[in-house]
Design brief:
Layout lengths: L1 E10 L6 H12 L10 E9 L3 H16 L5 E9 L7
Antiparallel strand pairs: 1-2, 1-3
Length: 88
């Protein structure tokens, strides 16, 4: 089965975000006053897995080992089954 995953990686709240601070400052300079800005990463992956449990396990491993630094970042993902076209 094919799944599409949308992965969101964000800095933990206790970690300073210099890029977010720079964007917030730039927004204020153009009169967009916001309370805070946090910068993160967004990744889309298409993967094969036998079922949703296996897909979730693969994604957790991928995020822990490659996409996120578990010391300073959190991640979450949305997982959707991709409809397969019937084989002729």
């Amino acid at each position: 089965m094919k799944y599409q995953a949308r992965i969101f990686v964000t800095l933990r709240p206790s970690v300073l975000d210099p890029a977010g601070t720079a964007v917030q400052s730039a927004l204020r300079q153009i009169d967009y006053h916001v309370d805070s800005v946090r910068i993160g990463k967004y990744v889309e992956i298409i993967l094969d897995a036998a079922d949703e449990t296996e897909a979730t396990q693969k994604l957790d491993e991928t995020c822990d080992k490659l996409l996120a630094n578990p010391v300073i970042e959190n991640y979450r993902f949305e997982l959707n089954l991709i409809a397969q076209e019937p084989k002729s």
